[in-house]
Specification:
With 157 residues, the protein is α+β, with helices and mostly antiparallel strands. 24% of the residues lie in helices and 48% in strands. The chain has helices at residues 26-32, 37-50, 54-58, 79-90; strands at residues 3-12, 17-25, 61-68, 75-77, 93-104, 109-120, 125-138, 141-148.
């Protein structure tokens, strides 16, 4: 497998300067910036989620989707359980999740690095971090999502 050595992120502090370097598969690098139907599906899902448009987001998912209860723990299954979870979540917090990079994997899976900002209902920031979301997509619909570690990019999940 071809690899490309990348200087991925530069970090500057008053005490030191260094460049974080790691290898990624060349095909992943090429594919991560390309637009595919699966990536466009995920972009639409993030946009409708951020708009808190539950119906539009669920329309992009399989009826028996498996979704993490990242805010509460565990998983929910099926459109109605996802709807109930998000309704509860948005009554307590306001999350905004922007995709940063898409990393297509094998077997219909895509790892998405996202920048996630979570605020309480008064607007105070509770979390501001980069996390990984791994999606399984089949037949043009999101089948499952899980929160997972990111590749060694300097961000933590």
């Amino acid at each position: 497998m071809k690899s490309l050595l990348l200087a991925f992120r530069s970090y500057l502090s008053p005490f030191n300067f260094f460049v974080k370097i790691y290898c990624v598969p060349f095909t992943t690098l090429l594919m991560s910036d390309q637009s595919t139907p699966e990536i466009e599906l995920l972009r639409a899902a993030y946009a409708s989620f951020n708009a808190q448009d539950i119906d539009a987001t669920l329309a992009l998912m399989a009826p028996d989707v498996t979704w993490p209860r990242a805010f509460k723990g565990g998983f929910v299954r099926g459109s109605e359980e996802v709807r109930a979870y998000w309704t509860e979540q948005w009554s307590e917090i306001n999350g905004h999740v922007e995709p940063v990079t898409f990393h297509p994997e094998e077997a219909g899976r895509i790892l998405v690095e996202v920048h996630q900002v979570v605020r309480d209902l008064a607007g105070a920031v509770l979390a501001d971090e980069h996390v990984g979301h791994r999606f399984t997509i089949a037949q043009g619909l999101i089948q499952a999502m899980e929160v997972c570690p990111l590749p060694s990019s300097g961000h933590t999940a």
